[in-house]
Amino acid sequence: MKAAIFKAKDSITVEERPKPSVKEPTDAIVRVVRACVCGSDLWYYRGITPHPEGSIGHEFIGFVEETGAGVKDIKSGDFVIAPFAYSDGTCANCQAGFQTACVHGGFFGGGNEGEGGQAEYVRVPHADGTLVKVPGSNFSDEMLASLLALTDVMGTGYHAAVSAEVTKGDTVAVVGDGAVGLCAVLSAKMLGAKRIIAMSRHEDRQALAREWGATDIVEDRGEDAVRAVMALTDNVGVDAVLECVGTAEANKTAFAIARAGAIVGRVGVPHDVQIDAMGTFYRNVGMRGGPAPVRAYMDILLPAVLEGRINPGKVFTFTTDLDHIADAYAAMDERRAIKSMLTIG
Ligand SMILES: [Zn+2]
Ligand SMILES: [Zn+2]
Description:
Bound molecules: zinc ion
CATH class of the largest domain: Alpha Beta
Shape: globular
Largest sheet: 7 strands, mixed
CATH superfamily of the largest domain: Medium-chain alcohol dehydrogenases, catalytic domain
CATH architecture of the largest domain: Alpha-Beta Complex
């Protein structure tokens, strides 16, 4: 089969690799139909976060081709969404709704053979706990894109909003205008936010943010951004902050614009971030979030997509095939695309 292989900084290729097979009785093999490049893949591509040479990609949807003898709920032929982390669905962490901390779980695309989502086939451990069956099999390209967004970015944006406890009538700020940040805007709207301040300086992203519910756009960064948000909120700050970047500056901004008692819901993987213990203490500012248990939000988000209430697939502004995987990464790296999709098979 063809699989994307991470070689080194700035180098992703496509190579022939053995098609994965069932190793454990709880495995399933999925034939990938759509996959995509994640913002976190760019950290590897840019050489900021280490990644072993090998398989890459953790966002994919497709048809189940084969299941192990211990798989009960998922059947061959099912159309499935694979959340970016696999999980057994039964341990205490899974039961509590934090499948990304499953004691038997892990993440796709970490270099192991047959476990990368940017490939024609993927071995999925704990198929019953991990995979989400989608009713039907004939989906439009638009629907496939939105289903693909449920593997990570939409669930991750939603997790930021849930972690920050966005409720009806809130004023919310979203730090970051990548695919996750835009999905966080959409999620804040779903949860009833009245005013949504999107922090973005790219026209295409601003347009999608507005379409999805942003009422205000702040183009500034750093201290200027803080001043701009404060000016919009009578110098109080916002009721909830959704931090979708992970850099030191984004976190600094996020905590500075939180009003007293607000929660910063963070889903950007922190890179060299320090949280001000004293400042957050005196302002009663909270912090929640982490790797999004997107599996936990499927009951809410999948019907919303299938019924056409949300269309998170709009984040894919560049589409190519697996042979052009290098273009898919470059388009995102150079910010020509919000997010790149791969049509496979
Ligand atoms: Zn991802
Ligand atoms: Zn578990």
